[in-house]
Amino acid sequence: MEHLCEKDMITCPYNREHVMLRKKYQQHILKCREIYKDKVELLECPFNKGHLVPKLEFHQHFKSCDDRKIIVQHLNSEEPDVRPDTRHEKIEADENWDDDRVEDYNPQVYCAQANIIREPRGLFPAQRKAFVKEEERRRRGDAEQPGTSNSPAENRPTPHHHKERLHSKRSSK
Fold this sequence. Notes:
This protein is 40% helix and 7% strand. The protein is mainly alpha-helical. Among the domains are: 1-39, no CATH class; 44-70, no CATH class; 105-138, no CATH class. The strands form 2 sheets. It has a two-stranded antiparallel ribbon with strand order 1-2. It has a two-stranded antiparallel ribbon with strand order 3-4. It starts with 8 loop residues before the first strand and ends with a helix.
């Protein structure tokens, strides 16, 4: 197991005995918030929702929060200079995504026409069997009508029919 540093660990603000990995903190907070909702009142920091602070310490945290410093620095920073060689002409597009005359996208129609494997979900067994058969025909690219087949594999008798043929031949002798 990899070596865990102290900076990788964090303490739960609801119960100081709960110590966890920093990456598990958000998931843990959801559980503890529900358990301690009537016992401990914590306020969320407006700069970082992960900072949960007791009401008495909130004002001090609000003034000294590390994330506040980042936001204030960003707001007070000057805009970067844009050099003239980085500017370019407006790019005109051939497509117009606001055109209402375009036909709506239908994923079922697209999947039926494209070379995509579809699965029969929510169908009754007979419907599922027909769907699978039609999909096999579609993927092969057969131009024949559904239900008619020229492939020898589909015209081959099943084992049940084969037994009936043998039985009828023996009884005729």
